[in-house]
């Protein structure tokens, strides 16, 4: 699970963002290494799941069962990457992937 933090740095996420980016990068490299033996490596990305970790936070989470179903659907479809929720789709597509960015930074 790489989460949207692999593409999007949020306030207070200076440790989580790079660690999730490393998960995404490792998945990409493993995919290349294992392609010759036809091993599928699928990375799964989402904003948040509704778990004990997100309880009490302002981040809305998806039901864990919905996350699992979406991930398995992607794997069954031989997807290299599964982007589960709309927030993560937007984070991946964002040209400037930091929530702390402002026009003054340009």
UniProtKB/TrEMBL annotation:
Protein name from the UniProt record: Uncharacterized protein
Listed Gene3D superfamilies: NAD(P)-binding Rossmann-like Domain
Organism of provenance: Streptomyces milbemycinicus
Domain of life of the organism encoding this protein: Bacteria
